[in-house]
Design goal:
By secondary structure, this protein is α/β, with parallel strands linked by helices. The chain is 42% helix and 15% strand. The chain has a six-stranded parallel beta sheet with strand order 6-5-7-8-4-9. A three-stranded antiparallel beta sheet has the order 1-3-2. Helix 1 crosses helix 3 and helix 6 crosses helix 7. 33% of the residues are buried.
Length: 349
Amino acid sequence: MTKSTRREKLAFDDPQALQALCGSNNARLKLIERTAGAQVHLRGNEVTIEGEDAAVETVKTALEQLYDLALAGKALSSDDVVRAVKLLQGDSGGASIQGVFGETILTPRTGRAIGPKGAQQKAYVDLVRGNDIVFAIGPAGTGKTYLAVALAVRALLDKQVRKIILTRPAIEAGEKLGFLPGTLQEKIDPYLRPLNDALADMMEADKLEKLVIDGTVEIAPLAYMRGRTLSDAFIILDEAQNTTPEQMKMFLTRMGFGSKMVITGDITQTDLPRGARSGLRDALELIEGIRGIGTVTFTDADVVRHPLVAALIRAYDTRDRGRFEARERGPVPVPNLDKADPDKAVGID
């Protein structure tokens, strides 16, 4: 059956907003065209859309909502534009680009606003705001840690908390800590660098240094949390798949009044010794049904890094699933030729 096609024409009054929407040499219009699968032409202040009904409707809605964001002064990257179109394609009706991409958590020193870049990231942000403890599960590149750090900085600036605590388990990555050069702090710094980098993106260097010195911002290995009660703090545990069940229990029970915890990790990428149970997987089984604790799961479709990252994650997941299934099946049985039917043995006529 032939799908119906149609032609739609839109006119936009503000030339600056239209230019911001289309991008240099209409690059963003071309991205919308490729992503949605409809032909898009710009002439003057008019955009003509041609194609199948569903594709035309997607492009029409995307252009109208993105134009409204441009009118409001919201700067969107080319990647954001593609994700906005995919948001509309994946929704059964009523999706709002404004509702997802229109929110700004923080505008750091770089000037580029930090906010959700997709429906799942928006759900994550809302979940953190509405719960005291949130588990964010998914592959690298989905914004789990970066958004959590942005929400922590926002909470500190708004005086909702008095302290930010960022922590990771210091699992050896091929080298024992004792054999690494330098002081203990110098030895553990590489494990904490991703958290440092995220903070450095969001705060002026001198201000961040001052907050670290006075203890308002603390970046430390998970072992440093033992024996403490963490009150009025925004606490982020990163790479939580590398905790043991005992470490996870220790961490979760550090929570004091006025605090919020975000635990991020990828349960498929543990660095624990073979056979050791991950504290993250263990906790996810225990928290079901507990009010005030939320869980959000990201997939490779939510990766916000280079598009090849999502493709690589899918390739590795497929390979790893195959290996897991092979282990579950066990070794292939080798026939015992001594007990085989001599008439069917190899080399006998």
